[in-house]
Amino acid sequence: MKTLYLECNMGAAGDMLAAALLELHPDPQGFVERMNRLGLPGVEFAAQPAVKCGITGTHVSVTIHGEEEESQDVHLHAHSHEHVHETVQEEALHGHSHHHDHEHDHEHDHAHAHEHDHGHTHGHHHHAGLGDIRHILSHLEIPQEVRADAEEVYQLIAQAESRAHGRPVEEIHFHEVGTLDAVADVVAVCWLLHDLAPEQIVASPVHVGCGQVRCAHGILPVPAPATATILQGVPTYGGAVEGELCTPTGAALLKHFVQRFGPAPVMRVEKTGYGMGKKDFAAANCVRAMLGQSGSASGRETVLELCCNLDDMTGEALGFAQEQLLEAGALDVFTQPIGMKKGRPGVLLTVLCREEDRERFVGLLFAHTTTLGVREHLCARYTLERSQETAETPWGPVGRKVSTGWGVTRNKPEYEDLARIAREQGLSLEQVRSQLS
């Protein structure tokens, strides 16, 4: 299976993710040229070599009318605009300092992207809302899938800021310069992933940094409230690095695209990319992206088996619990009849999941069953490589599940397609199956 693994040992930001993925692209220069043909007003997308701790990677820069924002990510703070204010985000986005000091003569609450110290003053600022972002995206010549992904990433950011600041989503606005800068990063990441087309995306737990960040409202903890909201349910950790390592944009991109978080899967790495931040730390300030084929030749992996004994649930309640577990991404859920104390018949409910998803599924078991305890076992699992195919037949396309490995190849038509044909043709399932085999 084509797998992308993102190593976020120094957090994640939009520009760092874009740079790491760009190094995996078969035609990085061509991609940069594509980005610059999008027609974002005054925007130039560029990639330069960068070195951190002796490792050579790529740094992506986005300039607006020839000027580069110090931060490549939108960091939003809701506030009212009937005053002159100064906001400094210390050590934000991998140690960059930000500064703005300007007047606003309009009244409305909105989220404001950090301006950065370029040694000049911006005279006029337009504040774009989520609708404006969608309008910008709708006019870009990008694949529809890329546009949809970018819109969903922005929706995550706006919802998080709305929750953090107690404002409706429609009152969350983005600063014009920061907007164009971030749009370029978000579109680049979405488009690169569209081109690379991994079948699964896995990421390490995310290093968010530690300490505090200072804004117009005072001193805030790291991660900032919006980032913390976006990262709910994602494994994160702090550490000795002072500053905000994971930005809202980086968090939203990870939350949208990554299917699971944990250690690197067993995979044959074919290409590695390093996306560099600007700040220098004792550790290499980068996101590392590895693209390859997951699964060893033996098809062996480790999974967690969670199980509990039940003797006081109705069949409907047990069925609902199984549905919730499967919808949450369990690898498998099944039941077995068992005998319990005092001769009572019972059910053994078993859930297979990834080790890093332990707490989530234990919580779901307690939430949706009447159990008072859950047992766990680590198991080795041997699997065949699975894929989906579509075959053309006299009755239209039929999906097939194909499994290979261990000297075995199997294929099985999708039940829903067989059932549809059987109903339309007045045949039995077995008749349809035999005519398609």
Automatic annotation (TrEMBL):
Write down the Pfam families for this protein, in alphabetical order: Ni_insertion
Q: What does this protein do?
A: Involved in the biosynthesis of a nickel-pincer cofactor ((SCS)Ni(II) pincer complex). Binds Ni(2+), and functions in nickel delivery to pyridinium-3,5-bisthiocarboxylic acid mononucleotide (P2TMN), to form the mature cofactor. Is thus probably required for the activation of nickel-pincer cofactor-dependent enzymes.
Gene Ontology biological-process entries: protein maturation
Per the UniProt record, the lineage of the source organism begins with: Bacteria, Bacillati, Bacillota, Clostridia, Eubacteriales
The protein's superkingdom reads Bacteria
- The Enzyme Commission number assigned here is 4.99.1.12
Q: What is this protein called?
A: Pyridinium-3,5-bisthiocarboxylic acid mononucleotide nickel insertion protein
Q: Which residues lie within the region annotated Disordered?
A: 69-128
According to UniProt, the reaction catalysed is:
Ni(II)-pyridinium-3,5-bisthiocarboxylate mononucleotide = pyridinium-3,5-bisthiocarboxylate mononucleotide + Ni(2+)
Q: Where is the composition biased (Basic and acidic residues)?
A: 72-120
Query: A GO molecular-function term, please?
Result: nickel cation binding
Keyword Lyase, does the record have it?
yes
Q: Which InterPro entries match?
A: Ni_insertion
This protein's UniProt keywords? Lyase, Nickel
What organism is this sequence from? Candidatus Acutalibacter pullicola
What the record says about family reads: Belongs to the LarC family.
